[in-house]
Amino acid sequence: MSSSNKTPPTPVGEGDSFLVLDFLPPDLADAVFEQLRGEVQWNLSAGGPVPRLVAVEGEINPDGTCVSARLSSIPAFHRPTLCTPPLSYPIYRHPADESPPLLPFSPTVARIRRHVQDALQQPVNHVLIQHYRSGADYISEHSDKTVDVVRGSRIVNVSVGAQRVMTLRTKKDAQRTPGDARAVQRVLLPHNSMFVLGPATNMRWLHGIRADKRPQHEKAGAECRAGGERISLTFRHIGTFLTPGEGYIYGQGAKSKTRDAARPVVRGGPEAEELLAAFGAENHASEFDWEVAYGEGSDVLHFSVFNSGD
Ligand SMILES: O=C(O)CCC(=O)C(=O)O
Ligand SMILES: [Fe+2]
């Protein structure tokens, strides 16, 4: 692991979050920005203007039994392969209605993933990759939505390219009186850093990357790297899964916790409103009660109304 003999990182937020510098080994770190920009299939959001480019990759589970149909009258190379049930893949639900399709890990992302898993000693099976094309691209303040994130697991942001600032701010309800200032921390995310977001910090603090409209000549060298472009990879350990074609859903965040009893995906309606309300509560409540909000599970995949929150 590249960071094993470095000084211990400074705790951030509730103390369960920290930043690791010089995370990837030099041979990977030097070329990683260009490799990712070229190999990732970037999407502009279909549902509305998203102030950055996004892509989703993840682990496709070979959880089905695939058999070559034993039809002796058909030559072997023509026999169909029957998979029952077929594959499933992790799903990370959040209030923005449209997620790009999940693709298998691409080669450079797969290498970064191995470093993350080694460093954390925790599996990660899903990554949201975001390209901040300039200082104008940003992500608004939010808490990550944890209905589908394996409980107690950590969320990891690997940064490459231009340095940006992650701003952490305690949730509004933590103010004892309306005039109280909310705690704010600024974490610099330089090229080749890994920010680990612990569950307690995600529960009590919001995080975001604000737009930086300063002219290039006012920025430090690290902020101008890669022409001011930044790519972040948010790795998560997801416990909720979809079957191909978004037909069925099961796992931690769904009503059925197991593959055998997977239930059809729900689109819109009152269950969608409930999940959106639970997401809202997760953004606002410092003592968010996961069991109350998400414990029963939700089979909703698409919300009827487009909502641009993160
Ligand atoms: O770009 C980043 O580092 C932050 C991404 C983030 O917070 C998210 O995807 O939830
Ligand atoms: Fe986030």
Automatic annotation (TrEMBL):
Which species is the source of this protein? Fibroporia radiculosa
One Gene Ontology term of the biological-process aspect is: DNA alkylation repair
PROSITE patterns for this protein: FE2OG_OXY
Please give the Gene3D superfamilies that the UniProt record associates with this protein. Answer: Alpha-ketoglutarate-dependent dioxygenase AlkB-like
What GO molecular-function term can you cite, just one? dioxygenase activity
Q: State what protein this is by name.
A: Fe2OG dioxygenase domain-containing protein
Q: Which InterPro entries match?
A: AlkB-like (IPR027450), AlkB-like_sf (IPR037151), ALKBH3 (IPR032854), Oxoglu/Fe-dep_dioxygenase_dom (IPR005123)
Looking at the record, the residues that make up the Fe2OG dioxygenase domain are: 123-239
Q: Which domain of life is it from?
A: Eukaryota
